[in-house]
């Protein structure tokens, strides 16, 4: 069994941290397989699809500092979520960081005393390359239509999730570009329709910060092309700048934009849906619905997508996630994974972290498959073993009637298959069901001996 496991494809689907283990060459880790603590109902499952982000600042000039600051921050949000630079396309004029008016050359912040969000931002399209033609071509994924820039486009496929964010001035039915050419809502929505028809995404979420931004989608965006849009303002009102900084002499951000990004920065993105994010951002952008200042944050398009988790589009920030809502059983894997990821390429530390991760995951797979095998041996003749093992008793009933049976069954298992340890405790229900089905510890011991015979010498 160990050799079978050796070739088992392992994936760290730790807790919905869709960490794709592009770990090792060789040994069969290339594929993604769900970790057993996740069920499909948890949003688990085989990980398919890539996350893409298209980030566009439509303005130039120091007095519009905030739009490029928003976009730089958005890049940091995506980056922290694990998206790779090759899947993030950034449009920004790039005249702020080194503007003569910026007292801190090379630094852009998006909140008072904030961190430098300019660091590391890819300069895919800057200056005159930020234009309507290139933005729409990048969104379509049409590299041949691009003129200038890095040539990077959203070459997403039918299983991919795409996030688009735009920040600048707008007007009724239009979004601005630095060269003052207008991006018309109609062309934008047609581009989305074409991308959908070409199976260019599984779902696409589009956040827009601009005045009258509701007018970009109102009455235009179909509800059946897999696009969900959130706008800073409704179709007839202004959106709001925020964080006036007297030292920098400019606004640092826009109200809607800093709201969604600060929410995203501070929460476990896999424990929150886009709908929940919308509600928080809506309340913040309207001062809890008072509209003392602020605007009406709006939703358009396919509302089903709003039930998807934020991390589906923005990835998951492991630091926030780990401290907040990692399932207990997965916390160890997440830590190991980060140790692996943090250590430098080619060092003994990296090799050791990888070996440890591999070992823990093999052990977990072994525990899971042995329990499954035992179920098959015990119940194989009577329908799917999984149904017996996974059965849940009606509320109000104890887990098991005969607790002594449970204890001796666990002992019998451990004798042949090694200690359950913390991870293996997830199988206690299976053992309880074995007892509830009237199977004694002797039969379990026999099945366990058979199930774990091959692996015993090697794995524990
Ligand atoms: C920013 O930092 C300065 C000095 O470091 C401090 O005086 C000021 O109160 C801070 N502002 C905010 C909004 O935290
Ligand atoms: C849009 O915003 C304006 C100005 O705040 C407000 O008067 C109007 O009721 C809003 N309309 C909708 C549909 O939210
Ligand atoms: C809105 O209400 C919440 C909870 O009552 C409060 O914590 C928050 O500060 C309020 N937000 C604004 C912008 O007033």
TrEMBL record:
InterPro entries: AE (IPR043577), Legum_prodom (IPR048501), Legumain_prodom_sf (IPR046427), Peptidase_C13 (IPR001096). One of its GO terms (biological process) is vacuolar protein processing. It comes from the Eukaryota. Residues 356-452 form the Legumain prodomain domain. The keyword Ribosomal protein does not apply. The keyword Disulfide bond applies. Residues 1-19 form the signal peptide. It holds the Pfam family Legum_prodom. The active site is at 169, 211 (nucleophile). One of its GO terms (molecular function) is cysteine-type endopeptidase activity. Keywords: Disulfide bond, Glycoprotein, Hydrolase, Protease, Signal, Thiol protease. GO terms for cellular component: vacuole. PANTHER family: HEMOGLOBINASE FAMILY MEMBER, VACUOLAR-PROCESSING ENZYME. Belongs to the peptidase C13 family. This is Legumain prodomain domain-containing protein. It comes from Paspalum vaginatum (seashore paspalum).
């Amino acid at each position: 069994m160990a050799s079978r496991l050796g070739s088992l494809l392992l994936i760290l689907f730790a807790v919905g941290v869709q960490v794709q283990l592009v770990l090792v060459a060789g040994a069969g880790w290339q594929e993604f397989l769900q970790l057993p603590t996740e069920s499909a109902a948890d949003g688990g499952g085989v990980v398919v699809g890539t996350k893409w982000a298209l980030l566009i600042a439509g303005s130039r000039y120091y007095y519009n500092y905030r739009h490029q600051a928003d976009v730089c921050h958005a890049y940091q949000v995506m980056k922290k979520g694990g998206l790779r630079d090759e899947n993030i396309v950034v449009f920004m004029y790039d005249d702020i960081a080194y503007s003569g008016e910026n007292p801190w050359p090379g630094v852009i912040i998006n909140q008072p005393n904030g961190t430098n969000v300019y660091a590391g931002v890819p300069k895919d399209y800057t200056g005159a390359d930020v234009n309507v033609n290139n933005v729409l071509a990048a969104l379509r994924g049409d590299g041949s239509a691009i003129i200038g820039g890095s040539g990077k486009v959203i070459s997403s496929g039918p299983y991919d999730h795409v996030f688009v964010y735009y920040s600048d001035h707008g007007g009724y039915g239009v979004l601005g570009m630095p060269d003052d050419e207008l991006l018309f809502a109609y062309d934008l929505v047609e581009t989305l329709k074409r991308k959908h028809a070409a199976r260019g995404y599984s779902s696409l979420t589009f956040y827009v910060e601009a005045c009258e931004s509701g007018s970009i989608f109102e009455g235009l965006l179909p509800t059946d092309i897999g696009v969900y849009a959130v706008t800073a303002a409704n179709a007839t009102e202004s959106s709001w700048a925020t964080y006036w900084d007297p030292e920098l002499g400019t606004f640092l951000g826009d109200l809607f934009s800093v709201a969604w990004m600060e929410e995203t920065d501070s929460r476990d993105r896999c424990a929150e849906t886009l709908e929940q994010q919308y509600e928080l951002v809506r309340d913040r952008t309207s001062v809890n619905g008072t509209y003392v200042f602020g605007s009406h944050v709006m939703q358009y398009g396919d509302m089903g997508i709003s039930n998807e988790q934020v991390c589906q589009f923005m990835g998951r920030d492991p630091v926030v996630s780990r401290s907040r809502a990692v399932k207990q059983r997965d916390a160890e894997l997440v830590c190991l994974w980060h140790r692996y990821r943090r250590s430098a390429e080619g060092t003994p530390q990296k090799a050791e972290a990888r070996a440890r991760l591999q070992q823990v995951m093999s052990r977990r797979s072994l525990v899971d498959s042995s329990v499954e095998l035992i179920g098959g041996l015990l119940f194989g003749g009577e329908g799917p073993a999984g149904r017996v093992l996974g059965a849940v008793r009606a509320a109000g009933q104890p887990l098991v009637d005969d607790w002594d049976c449970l204890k001796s069954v666990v002992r019998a298992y451990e004798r042949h298959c090694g200690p359950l340890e913390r991870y293996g405790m997830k199988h206690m229900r299976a053992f309880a069901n074995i007892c509830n089905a009237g199977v004694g510890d002797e039969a379990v011991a026999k099945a366990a001996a058979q199930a774990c015979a091959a692996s015993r010498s090697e794995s524990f």
